Amino acid sequence: MKAVCVLTFLVLLFTANRANAQRKRLPDSVNVQIRLHPRKASNPRVDSVLVIFDRYDHTGAGVIKSIYYPKDNQFTISGVPEGRYYISIYCMGFYSDVFNDQMFISKRHSNDLRYKLGPSDEFVPNTFLPAIEIDFTNLAITNIKSFR
To answer: Which domain holds residue 40?
Structure first.
């Protein structure tokens, strides 16, 4: 009886298929999609974008540094290694703006970055409008308390 049990066990052992219980291997790099949403539909589309990805732990400066030409104000960066990054996005061309962000790029998370574009100003020749307004009532020379 003992020999029959051992033989049955050996036959089952050699005829059994291997169980493939391994995890699905995740890729080494991911794709990052960046969308630039205009606040108004009348805002112009972005011509070109300079994107710089710097590693958060200062081990790699400019891991990704290239110019992209978005279609419908969105573009995809392929082959980004997983990790935490400082992200700098410079919109160039007719519409110019700068976005700085800190982001963790992961295989398990959504890698869609969205940025809202500010309002754009129209260019009028021979005019200059300063970006800041000066309040003359709060200057040090007009403040009485600064002379005491």
So the answer is: 29-127
